[in-house]
């Protein structure tokens, strides 16, 4: 079974600073993918970034980057130059890759508040 | 624009009543999913469908039913057997469960008990 743990219920950051949101995972599958989603107060889930377990480099998408440490089973999201619009819930999720159909397993999320 | 449309945005259910949440996508995705989100919690999978006329139970399927008669549509019925239906429901779709493609989500339906 897969498990995602997000240990930070809430995080505060000042505008223009960088922030790291933690995500650790547990799986026995050798091939898996890790996803980060943003959920603003309006409710929709917005896909941010993806990291495959066999990817050689850490994923980056604009201001988002993923600090992937496979041996430690962690996939932390780094947001650089925070903006007020980054205030939202952030969810880490994973799925098994390779053989067989698989679905996403989500963590409980981290609430990020960006202050002026 | 391609996307996922959920309706209604807000829904109220009376005791003993079944209600149906609509989910339509025009992304030409094969797979569709229904999730439930409770306050302070992550998303929990209710049902998913890989292809038309096929669907599987997720982690919390009891008290819910689905159908997949068309590729574009995956309605969720919350039956009277679901004793605690108050939650935020999210529908999603993806190219398939075998790929690394992300799931795309609708805006959600908030269900409350009258």
Question: What would your notes on this structure say?
Answer:
The complex is a heterodimer of chains A (116) and B (114). In chain A, β5 (32-39) and β6 (46-52) form a beta hairpin. Chain A has 116 residues and is mostly beta strands. Chain A has strands at 3-5, 10-14, 19-21, 24-26, 32-39, 46-52, 60-61, 64-69, 74-79, 88-96, 105-106, 110-115. Chain A is 0% helix and 52% strand. In chain A, the strands form 3 sheets. In chain A, strands 2, 5, 6, 10, 11 and 12 form a 6-stranded mixed sheet that branches. Chain B has 114 residues and is an all-beta fold. The model of chain B has no long low-confidence stretch (mean pLDDT 93). The radius of gyration of chain B is 13 Å and the shape is globular. In chain B, the strands form 2 sheets. In chain B, strands 2, 4, 5, 6, 9, 10 and 11 form a 7-stranded mixed sheet that branches. A 4-stranded antiparallel sheet of chain B has the order 1-3-8-7, with no helix packed on it. Chain B has strands at 4-7, 10-13, 19-25, 31-37, 43-49, 56-57, 64-66, 76-78, 87-94, 104-105, 109-113. Chain B is built from no helices and 11 strands. The termini of chain B are far apart. The interface between A and B is medium-sized, with 26 and 25 residues.
């Amino acid at each position: 079974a897969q498990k995602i743990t997000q240990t930070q219920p809430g995080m505060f950051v000042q505008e223009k600073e960088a922030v790291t949101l933690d995500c650790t995972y547990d799986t026995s599958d050798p091939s898996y993918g890790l996803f980060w989603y943003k959920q603003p107060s309006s409710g929709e889930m917005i896909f941010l970034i993806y990291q495959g377990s066999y990817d050689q480099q850490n994923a980056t998408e604009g201001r988002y980057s993923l600090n992937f440490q496979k041996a430690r089973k962690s996939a932390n999201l780094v947001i650089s130059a925070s903006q007020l619009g980054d205030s939202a819930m952030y969810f880490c999720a994973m799925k098994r890759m390779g053989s067989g159909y698989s679905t996403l397993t989500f963590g409980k999320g981290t609430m990020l508040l960006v202050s002026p | 624009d391609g996307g996922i449309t959920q309706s209604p945005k807000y829904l109220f259910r009376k005791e003993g009543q079944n209600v149906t949440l609509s989910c339509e996508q025009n992304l030409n995705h094969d797979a569709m999913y229904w999730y439930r989100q409770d306050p302070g919690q992550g998303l929990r999978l209710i049902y998913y469908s890989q292809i038309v006329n096929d669907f599987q139970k997720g982690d919390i399927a009891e008290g819910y039913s689905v159908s997949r008669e068309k590729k574009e549509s995956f309605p969720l019925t919350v039956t009277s057997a679901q004793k605690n239906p108050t939650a935020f429901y999210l529908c999603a779709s993806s190219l398939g469960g075998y790929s690394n493609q992300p799931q795309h989500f609708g805006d959600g339906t908030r269900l409350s008990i009258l």
